[in-house]
Design a protein that fits this description.
single chain; about 210 residues; 9 helices
Length: about 210
């Protein structure tokens, strides 16, 4: 048993050593640090008290949900790192948290499903235009080995390229019900956490 646990831990660590994983994590860390710096500057310069900031908040409150819905669809397909920042920003301006969590989760899941359907219908030639052959083989191997566990891990960590796994699921013809559950629930959890964070930042900046 201990040997099996050790092997499982080593295999899990090997996933995070993959080149595409390291690149995603580095990019995510850079984006996170940049976001925290921006929040600090907003507080330092008291931007929340300006008319421009107030106008942006009004736009979010009046038209934000529809725009956020479409942006998160795009985020679920090709620009995954945009969605966490968008969720935090929207929560910062006081958008209804329940509607915000549901809207962003639904939009991102639709975007992921678009990836799934395209890969399912068009197969390897289409997928290899988005994912290099080396990464495709590597991700397929991880999916065959870990299945839904790795998908949940990717879904719960915003900086990981879960949208690429949607291609793998479609390519391997994973059951659509399984795919939708694995796409929706982890993002629901992480977006709920991000909304809470955004609300706390809004209170700190004085925007909510």
């Amino acid at each position: 048993m201990p040997e099996q646990n050790q092997e499982a831990n080593e295999n899990t660590i090997s996933v995070f050593k993959a080149s595409w994983m390291r690149s995603s994590i580095k990019l995510g860390l850079i984006a996170t640090i940049a976001g925290l710096i921006v929040i600090g500057l907003l507080k330092f310069f008291d931007v929340a008290g300006t008319q421009m900031f107030s106008d942006i908040g009004g736009f979010f409150l009046n038209y934000g949900l529809l725009g956020i819905f479409f942006v998160t669809i795009v985020a679920g397909t090709i620009v995954p790192l945009g969605s966490p920042a968008l969720v935090v920003a929207a929560a910062l301006f006081g958008i209804n948290p329940v509607l915000l969590v549901f809207t962003t989760t639904l939009g991102f899941t639709i975007g992921m499903t678009i990836n799934y359907v395209l890969a399912y219908r068009l197969g390897r030639p289409y997928v290899q235009k988005r994912v290099s052959p080396e990464h495709l083989e590597e991700m397929t191997r991880y999916w065959n080995k870990y299945g839904w566990i790795i998908y949940i891990i990717f879904g719960l960590i915003p900086v990981l390229p879960v949208e690429l796994l949607a291609f793998i699921c479609g390519f391997l013809k994973t059951r659509i019900t399984t795919f939708l559950i694995l796409s929706f629930i982890p993002r629901l959890v992480i977006f709920a956490i991000l909304v809470q964070f955004g609300q706390q930042v809004g209170n700190w900046l004085g925007t909510t």
